[in-house]
Amino acid sequence: MSRFQPTGLGQDDFAEMVAEDVERALAHYDEAINQSTVVSVGKIAGSIASAVTLLSPKHQRAIDAIHADLPGLASKFVRALAAEAARRSEAGTAGATNRSTALLAEEPLPPPPQSDDLESMLIEDWAGRVAGSTYLEENLRIARSTLHRWQRRGDVVALRKGGRKHVFPLAQFVDGRPVAGISDVQSLIGNPRLAWLWLTRPSAQLDGRIPIDLLRQDQIEDVVEAARAFAPG
User: Fold this and answer.
1) Looking at the chain, which runs of residues are DSSP E strands?
2) pTM
3) Given a cut of 60, is residue 147 above it in pLDDT?
4) Residues 77-88: pLDDT tens digits?
5) Are 225 and 145 contained in the same domain?
6) Enclosing H/E stretch for 131
7) What are phi and psi of 159, to 5 degrees?
8) Looking at residue 101, what is its pLDDT?
9) What is the DSSP letter of 108?
């Protein structure tokens, strides 16, 4: 599998670019296909492509190793997606949300690893794709002085790797800037590693949604309140 190397292109823009390419290809393949279906398929493909680029190298390599199984797995995913869409359509959005909340209450999410556990793991295996200041300057046009200012203010998550070196998770950047709300989350949770782990895992306080995804959608207040409920003390 080829590795996506962003050159100033945000994850949302990348997903949209993939979606447009898929829409064109699908329309050329089957001119009779419903236009709304074409758009939906494009969005699915774009979302998956974008999500794969945020996987850790370990998980990307795992996908590389099962090329022969991908068509079958994709078929199962699409059938499951269609079944879920049909269920929500029949039950209504409100009913589906209530059921999701009830399931979370019955089966609470496991607690995140402690800081000591994270220190013993490779960053890429739990934090997703990360990069240093040189990469960010060359590819996202983020000046080192700007990055250091963001780091001092807590506007960006910086994870220590080795001695004094810091790396920065790429999922926190949109259009060359960290998403708003990260400083609030870090001030509440404290430890940058635990803060990033919480930001990138389904949160019971947010009905199983992923906080960093909501921040990327400007749903800052919901995420900050959830972080306040999650934070110790």
Assistant:
1) 130-131, 159-160, 166-169, 173-174, 177-178
2) 0.53
3) yes
4) 766 776 667 667
5) yes
6) strand 130-131
7) -110, 130
8) 47
9) P
Rg of the chain on CA atoms, in Å? 19
163: left (phi over 0), alpha (psi -120 to 50) or beta: alpha
Smallest CA-to-CA distance from 166 within 157, 175, 174 is with 157
Structural domain tally of the chain?
2
What range defines the domain where residue 156 resides?
115-230
Based on the fold, state whether residues 87 and 145 are members of the same structural domain.
no
Whole-number Å distance between alpha carbons of 179 and 173: 6
Residue 144, φ and ψ in degrees, nearest 5: -60, -40
Residues 6+ apart with CB under 8 A from 2: none
CB 205 within 8 A of CB 167: no
SS3 203: strand
**What is the Cα–Cα distance from 205 to 182, expressed in whole angstroms?**
17
Q: Which residue carries 């919901």 as its tokens? A: 222
Token couple for 153 = 């203010």
Q: Indicate the residue type of 35.
A: Q
Is residue 5's pLDDT more than 60?
A: no
CA atoms lying within 13 Å on the CB side of residue 151: 17
Q: Which residues are within 8 A (CB) of 41 and not within 5 positions of it... i.e. 6 or more apart?
A: 22, 23, 26
